[in-house]
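Box 3.1 A note on notation
Throughout this textbook, protein chains are presented in two layers. The first layer is the amino acid sequence; the second is a token string describing backbone geometry. Keep the layers aligned when reading.
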Amino acid sequence: MDSHPGGLPNGDNAEDSDRDYRVLSIQSHVVSGYVGNKSAVFPLQVLGFDVDFINTVEFSNHTGYGSWKGSCMDEKTLQDLFDGLRVNHLTMSYTHLLTGFVQSKTLLEKIADIARELKRSNPKLIYVCDPVMGDNGKMYVPMEVFEAYRDSILPLADIVTPNQFEAELLTGITIRSEKDALAAIDRLHSRGVPTVIISSSDLGDDKNLIGFGSAVNQGAGKLRFRMNIPRLPASFTGTGDLFTALLLAWMTKTGDLQRSCDITVSTLQAVLKRTWKHFQENCQDSQPCLRHLELRLIQSKRDIENPVVSVQCLNI
């Protein structure tokens, strides 16, 4: 295993900590727990990124609890917030746009408008999109949201991080093998996305989940790799949001997709192992107590800052 003293991988530019990275993160938010912006903002800040965030929903807790209270943002409120940023010249310095859960087609189309404007202001801006639509065959959003991702968002995104179900929706390809996964990735590339990560799939076994990464580099061909991700005996919420935030950070720091995925998956594993240990030590109920499965994100600050690479991707 490779450790990286000081929180940066060996070989990173020492001037990195002096650079100004500013992220606009648009996704869900909960009062208690760690999903959406609650899962993404803290690790980005720990890794040296300024983060402005807009919450597409404001819920008491994540919906896996079965009961929650709160409200959803509409496109007018989003536009008002962005207009307020623009009139005060606060939209000019964003280096990244990060999006996650968006519950309606009209809101997602408004985000596409914002992405276009930000890219006009800064042509080097990187848009990282986690197209949160569902998992394990279950949709979290109306089908029209999928259409907005396909038609409006994909042509604007620089990096997308769907899970298997979302990749199948976006491409129309059923993934039953590694060949199918790579075909789905190629279809996403053909729609204009340079970097694609399928963050998890059902192609593994009882011990491992399988993910895939691919990047198309002008003049340098295509990079492809497989991620073997150790499986823990529990279902966690907010892992995709954390994965995408960490990937944004490490891609910016290293410029190396495969290396960034090594660090991202290893960091995520450290957080999940700490969370699972906390659950085992504190949940005595016959039914799983979800509050003890909330990500131990704050307690994992050192793992985020100073990752130990325990998982390495394999070239395909």
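The chain has nine helices and 14 strands. The first strand starts at residue 2 and ends at 3.
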